[in-house]
Design goal:
α4 runs parallel beside α6. With 112 residues, the chain is mainly α. It has six helices and no strands.
């Protein structure tokens, strides 16, 4: 998987559905039902909406990765958690590939 290309495509998708801020920053979850019940109606409605949007984004991520990658993120409960795992796992891989490619270019230029 080319994480850079994939992440750009996913960001556009999430932005088009007004989900990117949620994927990037997450949302604040309440600690328990008592805390939820103590909230005002507008706060409850907002939290419920954030939960729905988060699950929509998480589903999109789950659907758009290969099975071997899915195994790494299958325990993520939020879109932000899955996104963070993917970034940690694959963003470095792209950097390593670029460094290796640059090294090969230098080596090839020495023999040219």
């Amino acid at each position: 998987m080319n994480f850079n290309n994939w992440s750009v495509q996913m960001k556009v998708l999430f932005k088009s559905q007004d989900l990117w801020n949620l994927v990037e920053n997450g949302y604040i979850e309440v600690a328990n039902n008592e805390e939820f019940n103590a909230m005002r109606k507008e706060e409850k409605d907002s939290l419920v909406e954030s939960r729905k949007k988060d699950q929509k984004a998480l589903y999109a991520i789950f659907q758009d990765v290969e099975e071997t990658i899915f195994e790494k993120i299958s325990n993520a409960e939020t879109a932000k958690a899955a996104w963070d795992i993917l970034q940690k796992s694959y963003k470095g891989d792209d950097r390593v590939r670029r460094v290796r490619l640059q090294t090969l270019r230098v080596i090839l230029s020495l023999y040219a």
